Amino acid sequence: MRFALRAAVGLVLVVTFAAGCRQSSSAVSGAAGASSTAASSSGATNGAAAAGELETFSVRGRIVSVDAAKGMVVLDHEAIPGFMDAMTMPYKLKDPGVVSELHPGDRITAKMLVRKVGDEYEEPVLDEIVVTAQARPDYKPAVQYHVPTAGDAVPDFRLVNQSGRTIHLAQFKGRVLLLTFVYTRCPLPDYCIRMSQNFAQIDRALKADPALYARTHLLSISFDPKVDTPAVLKSYGETYIGGDAKAAFAHWDFAAPPVGELAALTQFFDVGITPGDAGLPTHSLSTALIGKDGRVRAWYATNEWTPAEVLAAIRSAAAA
To answer: CB 3.0 to 4.6 Å from 282: which of 126, 172, 234, 276, for a disulfide?
Structure first.
């Protein structure tokens, strides 16, 4: 069963799933305004759960209601690429104990765990919840996330690129900078892989216009600095750049921050990261266009943007 329903405003669509879901403990993180606390999962889904292949999808949406007695929330969520359209429906929580930290109106990202049995998907459960915008002002999270907004001054974050050279965001002032967040081990075609493919397409289009090429720069930032060393980033970048990679790196850097500075960077650009299965992180997306003045021009929080759309924004920023 594949979901293809889009919820109307105020309408709750209730979909019946097979009963008997078993839950294992997990941890939740919360955030206020544009904020969040760290999240982690303490274990995989109980092996005694119903038979079927467990699949994982990233989901983002707004909590409509909370049922503490049942350990459930009704979530109005965005489309989940490759799985289902935007929808409003109830979901069980992998750890019902976290329900007290969730409130109607909270905006969240989470991991959806669902079992595929034959042609049907059963037992959807939410895990590794990150509250990115919190409705109740009385809750003060440990970590504050910032939602990039046009006009925001971007701090001079420090990174180490594919050549082992330290670079700073401030050094790109005077040029239009397009940056995104990835990690090289990401297996999902609609997430990091799509971001890198889109950047490769943008890089080729900019190269066809030498004057514009000279006034722009691309930057792919890894949030996995322990694994994504300069050598790993160089190899990853060459996969997408192709051709004369050495020359192309002058226009498109692949870099990672020092481990101790990762949190400040990801929090400023609203990148939620939680531990995932097999040591691979679950994360949100964040792509930002920074103008020649070092201020945010546009921010793209999903994978729905197109190279053509962003190219138009780059040309506009370069002409400003």
So the answer is: 276
Question: Radius of gyration (Cα) for the chain, nearest Å?
Answer: 20
| Closest residue by Cα to residue 81 from 53, 50, 55 | 55
DSSP symbol at 281: P
The rounded distance, in Å, linking the Cα atoms of 103 and 98 is 11
Low-confidence ranges of the chain (pLDDT < 50): 1-50
SS3 content of the chain, % helix, strand, coil (to 5): 25, 30, 45
Q: Coil, strand, or helix at residue 22?
A: coil
Helix 230-241 × helix 192-207 angle, to 10° = 60
Own/partner long-range contacts of 243-246 (Cβ < 8 Å, ≥24 apart)? none
Read off the DSSP letter of residue 10.
Answer: T
Q: Which two tokens stand for residue 33?
A: 């305004």
SS (H, E, C) 24-59: CCCCCECCCCCCCCCCCCCCCCCCCCCCCEEEEEEE
- Chain centroid to Cα 243, Å, comes to 29
Cβ contact 235:241 at 8 Å: no
Give me 306's structure tokens. 């197109």
Asked whether 75 and 62 are in contact (CB, 8 A), the reply is: yes
Q: Minimal CA–CA distance to 111: which of 95, 97, 128, 124? A: 128
Continuous segment of H or E residues that includes residue 214 = helix 210-214
Q: Quick one: which of 255, 270, 275 has its CA closest to 144?
A: 270
Sorted by where each starts, the structural domains of the chain and their CATH numbers stand as 1-145 (2.40.50.320), 158-319 (3.40.30.10)
This prediction's pTM: 0.61
Q: How many residues belong to the chain?
A: 320
Please state, in angstroms and rounded to a whole number, the distance separating the CA atoms of residues 276 and 58: 11
Rounded Cα distance, 81 and 96, in Å:
26
For residue 226, give the amino acid letter.
K
Q: Say how far apart CA 184 and CA 288 lie, in whole Å.
A: 19
Per-residue confidence (pLDDT) for residue 199, from 0 to 100: 98
AA identity, residue 99? V
